Amino acid sequence: MIGIGSALALVAAIIAFLVIFDWNWLRGPLGRYASAEMQREVAITGDLRVHPWSFSPKAEAYGVRIGQPAWAKRVDPAAGQMVQVQRIAVQIKILPLLRGEVILPFLALDKPDVRLLRDKDGKANWTFGAPTSDKPLKLPAIQRFVINEGELRLDDRQRGALFVGTVNAQEHAGQRGGRFVLEGKGALNRADFLAQITGGPLLNITPNRPYPFDAEVRAGSTHILAKGQVTKPFDLARFETQLTVSGADLNRLHDLTGLTLPNTPPYRVSGRLVRKGQRSDFETLSGRIGDSDIRGDLFVLTGRERPYLEADLRSKRLDFDDLGSLVGAAPATGRGETASAGQKIEAAQRDATQRLLPDATLQVERVRAMDAKVSYRADTVNAPNLPLRKVSLELALDKGVLTLDPLAFTFSRGDLRGKVRLDARPATPRTDLDVRLTNARLEDFIPIQSEGKPAISGPVMARAKLSGVGNSVHRAAASADGEVTLVAPRGQIRQAFAELLGVNASKGLILLLSKSDKETAVRCAVADFSVKNGVMTTNHLVADTGVVLAKGRGEINLETERMNFRIEGDSKKPRLMRLFIPITVKGPFLAPKIGLDPSKAVGQGGVAAALGSIINPIAALLPFVTTGEAKDADCAGLVSDARQQGAPVKVSQTTLAKVKK
Predict the structure, then answer these.
(1) Any residues with CB less than 8 A from the CB of 650 and at least 6 apart, and which?
(2) pLDDT tens by residue, 351-406
(3) Fewest 10 Å CB contacts: which of 35, 43, 273, 387?
(4) What is the pTM of this model?
């Protein structure tokens, strides 16, 4: 009996101790333990209250404070405390805990003030392990969740995003048992921000039953709608949802997602988003970007040194203006064109300054921050004034180096194919471009009709090989070095236009006024430029027709986007009346002016010598432009004709070395 009495006395003593125990005595030990685990100061400055006598014990802590890690104070001396909470209340179920399931019947935060910070290197104050850890938030099942008057400041210097606002969570009564509402309001990078997540009542939440939700996010011009379910509440690494995203520019999604996306016209895309751990799949996406449709699949991998995006995308019909937005060009703003208000302003400025090359600054830090592999195909293309039919590209982004290989444009006749490489690793990016035009036709690019026939026709080929430095298309072009060559090896031209190449006023005007459709051969036409520091200077500019030999010289300045050419023509046949006056082409790319220079008249003699001086370098250019066509080109025949006319035939070693590179 003494033993039983002693045991009962001990139990009674323990109960009495727990009843009268002052739980505030544990504030210090708990704070020191949490500080050691979180590697920053943690303190409970108010009361600690515990209610243990239940299968769902409850604890309340007042005046909870979590400090910043040491590095955060160096990055932002005004960061203050990481977390300050007036009151935290939590309740946990004991029986499910014995089965390894964590279920919280109640979790409440009163007046939490949270200040999150991530530096440019990716170190974040909300991670307590590896500094690059970016795992999704994983919460236990919560059956009642309350946030009262929460304040949140998120300063993400790696993404360049700053959010300042409020957060609240409550359950609202309703006809169907109520609903849970989590709401955030504020400003994201000074643009209005609103996020609202709603779902059914949390009371019956269990870890093994999916929890359905609706979500809406508005961040400036970006609008996101989602309807889905958290597969295992509330493991936010596992959910699936039907998602619709719309906005003025895909590039603006970076602040929300951390993904480097291209500049675009206004867009709207929908699809099924499935997240499983560190992989997110956007399946069967479809919608419109500008005036182009888009469909395909993509996935994103996180938890790496850099996020990785892979996509396979197609368009049934691509509006060519939308493609220009990818390199910073403002989209067209004509009737029926889709553009945001800001893009319309940019287009107006472009038109007012008569500039063609985009000057939008490349965000190099974003290019360095993500890897990607993207395949894109456009089955048809709407490109007024261009015979463009299809577009395809393969894009790779790896450690700050972006490559388009191949980049292919298919015309009604002919192809433009090549490779573009942008190295964003240096402080100033470097761009290398090498593209070739093959099997194309002059009449497709010069659609001038005369009496129902093309004014000029025949094959044309070209190649551009350039390298420049700059953080925009315009700046890279303004510093470019390289070479550009265009060759029309044979063809036909209306004789009236050919005569006017030499401004043979007598013959050309008579043929035009008589509406003559007489044609003459294009023996060879070549425009060959050397490019140095953004200035394209002519090596050869010649058009040899059956009646006129025209030669020219001049330059194109890619920085000022202006051209200055002088073309002189000479008839191959004696004319009773003639007036040969040099032609000038001057002015900006978008509005050049054609004029006459009467200061010098060109004599009729010397054609044979002129042929010899220009034909041999031209023949040597053909391997640079294309392979396999030179043997069929009349350009090669000019060498023989020049010999017959007594012209010296010599090929310079400099030209040979250039084209054999």
Answers:
(1) 616
(2) 666 677 888 888 899 999 999 999 999 999 999 888 999 999 999 999 999 999 99
(3) 35
(4) 0.83
